[in-house]
Amino acid sequence: MMSSDGYTASDGPLAQQSSTNSESYGPINQTILTGPLSFDYERSKSNSPKLKLNPYSWTKVANIIFVDEPVGTGFSYAKSSEGYNISDTLAAAELYEFLLKWLKLHPKFLTNSLYIMGDSYSGIIIPILVQKISDGNEVGQEPRMNLKGYAIGNPVTNTHDDLNARIPFAHLKTLISEELYESAKNNCKGEYRNVDPSNAACVDDLNIFTECTVKIYTAQILEPDCQKLSPKPRPSVSNWDPDTLMEDPVDLLQSITHLPEPRRWCRNYNYLYSYIWANDKIVQQALHIREGSISEWVRCNESLVYTYDVSSSLNYHRNLIKKGYQVLIYSGDHDMVIPYIATHAWIVSLNLTIAHDWRPWFVDGQVAGFTMQYTSKKYCLTFATVKGGGHTAPEYKPNECLAMIDRWLSYYPL
């Protein structure tokens, strides 16, 4: 729990933050994305990471609870093997239970405005959690949470549509030719995920698409590709598999204990610091990690028994419209993992009223992205792109994202 600058912990907004995909989480969020600390890459050595204060920490504008979820990720653990059998709905239920217990232990925050925040796969979990909080408030669950809204960045929302948008996105960003795009659109009838293997023309087009993009760093298409650090093989050009697109594009060998000497900088090298730092016994003692609760911190725990029982969170968003919450949905516009065009498409499908049409928003006099605002009575949804941002946006554009979240929490236009 952190606070600083223009508010005090007793009256500032309270935010619960979760992140990444169903198998990944941990100090990476605090140290690289929105937390109070970041790695000092200039002073760090390969086996000795150094920390510095993050000038763009979201804790400057809110009290934030960072949560390792689901159980088994980061430093979180269960006391029984059954506790590691988790799903989308169970993850949301556990977060709700956590918030109830946390607020009972810290009642001074009960009157603070509460916002639920996250990114990436949290796009599935957060709407479920917000629905649970809303339902609990309505039936008199104690303690009552002063829920005001939620914010999700680069959100997984509908796995089919999110993946299906990658080919139109690649066309928009000139990663594939006009001819290939039109051919694929015609041969595949706009369906690039559930492909009929007997449709040879469609399969051929998708194989060419894979050949064109296989060396693109999908988390941020302008940055160098660093997949040589990943143990996962690239999708075969002759075997189009859209499910590989949901895999973490920055997954790294967890056993690496020193950084390679790259010919050019790769963002993935930064993530190795978190592995070294989080497994330092002195660090774990300082963080009050219960000894013996985990054998090794890993960025992605692929041993979890995780059931994906919610393929789309869109109906949860629809149900929450009538609750009158403030909602922020933002996307890095160079993210090919969850393309912004897929996110904007499902927002449009909510059939809300356009309060403010597409326009640029600015930070330090420069265009930071583009935004639209939608309303339905008291409900207000702000959609924003972050220019040059990737998956996820605060990692690539920390100054702009801090300005964005500060304005949104203050009910100011972006």
Topology:
Elements: E1 14-18, H1 27-33, E2 37-39, E3 51-53, E4 63-66, E5 85-87, H2 88-105, E6 114-119, H3 122-138, E7 147-153, H4 159-164, H5 166-172, H6 178-188, H7 200-213, H8 267-278, H9 281-286, E8 305-307, H10 314-320, E9 326-332, H11 340-348, E10 353-363, E11 366-376, E12 379-386, H12 393-396, H13 398-409
Helix pairs in contact: 2-3, 3-10, 6-7
Q: Give the rounded overall mean pLDDT.
A: 86
Runs with pLDDT <50, length 5+?
Answer: 1-8, 228-258
CATH-defined superfamily of one domain: Alpha/Beta hydrolase fold, catalytic domain
- How many extended strands? 12
Structural class: alpha/beta
CATH architecture of one domain: 3-Layer(aba) Sandwich
Strand content: 15-25%
Tell me the Rg in angstroms: 21 Å
Looking at the structure, the CATH topology of one domain is Rossmann fold
- The number of helical elements comes to 13
Helix-strand topology string: EHEEEEHEHEHHHHHHEHEHEEEHH
How far apart the termini lie comes to 26 Å
Reading off the top of the CATH hierarchy, the class of one domain is best stated as: Alpha Beta
Strand order of the largest sheet: 4-1-6-7-9-12-11-10
> Outline, from the CA principal axes?
globular
Residues in helices, as a percent range: 25-40%
Sketch the major β-sheet.
8 strands, mixed
